[in-house]
């Protein structure tokens, strides 16, 4: 499989880089898919675009920081050039930094929009995989981040100038960009299937996306030959995949215990008054005494206030119990 003869075209003095085009196209597809899924959940028009305005720049900065820190020799080592850390167009964006930075930016936007993080994250997850699949083609045009030499029919031809010194005589290499791109598309399909079959909600679609991605990425990382920090005989990104994967499993367990068998559909937490009225009516319908139903309404209102303020739900519910008890004594 031949590599592109060039990855930059010029419109007069303006360079058009294939690497940037791949990332932009991936972002556009991710936004379109996420917007459609969020609208299906009752989201306001343009919400995903608003989220992307925050998430994309945060993600790019986070991705670059992670790349620089995980490949320090090129920037801090002997002969390194720290200024080149700013040259994003030359390639070098770490997906883990992109996820972390993008999450922070998205969290800011989601809170401004007054939406539930878990529901939004679940809506965005499949589109994120598609975006990653398309964005990986930027590595193809840059002839970077390929794998070990291989004689397989789909081996990727790499120009001598872009080969590592130890593999100067090798002609074809594992196209790890293609492996990861295909895995992302397979994972997106699996994610949609699992979401439909298991009725995933409360952030579990997003956590499953993370888990599926790290399974493929951890393996693909072992094929790569680009410079990277090695810890305990394994590349740093392999360890990152393991740690992130374990955190995703833990998150799935916690979510399943907190919300067993329930699919979240509401994009916004109910207002305290609405939560109180609904809980009180439900308790009365179940045969509770009026004073017990009123206490249940107070607890529901406290939980709604806790969600809106970021306070502990248990603390708020405990406070509501105190209020309910005081009302009964009076």
From TrEMBL:
Entry EC number(s): 2.5.1.145
GO BP terms: lipoprotein biosynthetic process
Pathway connected to this protein: Protein modification; lipoprotein biosynthesis (diacylglyceryl transfer)
GO molecular function list: phosphatidylglycerol-prolipoprotein diacylglyceryl transferase activity
Positions of the UniProt region annotated as Disordered: 265-330
Intracellular or extracellular location(s): Cell membrane
Gene Ontology CC: one annotated term: plasma membrane
Topological type in the membrane: Multi-pass membrane protein
Composition skew (Low complexity), residue ranges: 272-287, 303-322
Source species, domain of life: Bacteria
Primary role: Catalyzes the transfer of the diacylglyceryl group from phosphatidylglycerol to the sulfhydryl group of the N-terminal cysteine of a prolipoprotein, the first step in the formation of mature lipoproteins.
Name of the protein described by the UniProt record: Phosphatidylglycerol--prolipoprotein diacylglyceryl transferase
Organism for this UniProt entry: Pseudokineococcus marinus
Primary gene name: lgt
